[in-house]
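Researcher: I'd like a candidate sequence for this fold, 141 residues long. If you have to choose between options at a position, lean toward the conservative one.
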């Protein structure tokens, strides 16, 4: 789980800018398959993972840096071409590549993967692709 600040910034940014799917869901808020559209359509699920937060000010002081990961999980109905899924994945990558969102910086936007254990999938209904974003966020006190 990342800080509340990072989660809010990313969700607000997606609300204002994301057009790749009709639906996006915070993985932490996801409860059941009933939360997904019927009939199946492309969905973005966002997962927040923090790694660490530490003081980065010289000699101690007032700046703390959170380092973490944002996973974008693109779910597509099974039976469709990977070309369509990769197109949505690239829209997600393009949206975040090189971006600074207030005091948060996206440092890396990794290529999509559909490997088991990396991407969320629901057998028989959705195939999943995952894109990992690495970020830093500085907090000044």
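Model: Candidate sequence:
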């Amino acid at each position: 789980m990342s800080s509340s600040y990072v989660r809010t910034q990313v969700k607000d940014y997606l609300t204002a800018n994301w057009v790749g799917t009709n639906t996006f869901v915070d993985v932490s808020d996801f409860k059941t398959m009933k939360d997904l559209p019927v009939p199946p359509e492309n969905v973005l699920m966002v997962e927040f993972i923090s790694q660490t937060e530490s003081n980065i000010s010289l000699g101690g002081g007032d700046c703390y840096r959170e380092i973490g990961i944002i996973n974008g999980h693109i779910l597509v109905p099974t039976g469709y071409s990977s070309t369509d899924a990769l197109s949505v994945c690239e829209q997600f990558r393009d949206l975040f590549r090189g971006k600074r969102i207030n005091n948060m910086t996206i440092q890396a936007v990794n290529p999509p993967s559909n490997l088991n254990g990396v991407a969320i999938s629901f057998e028989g209904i959705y195939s999943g692709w995952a894109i990992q974003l690495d970020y830093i966020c500085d907090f000044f006190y």
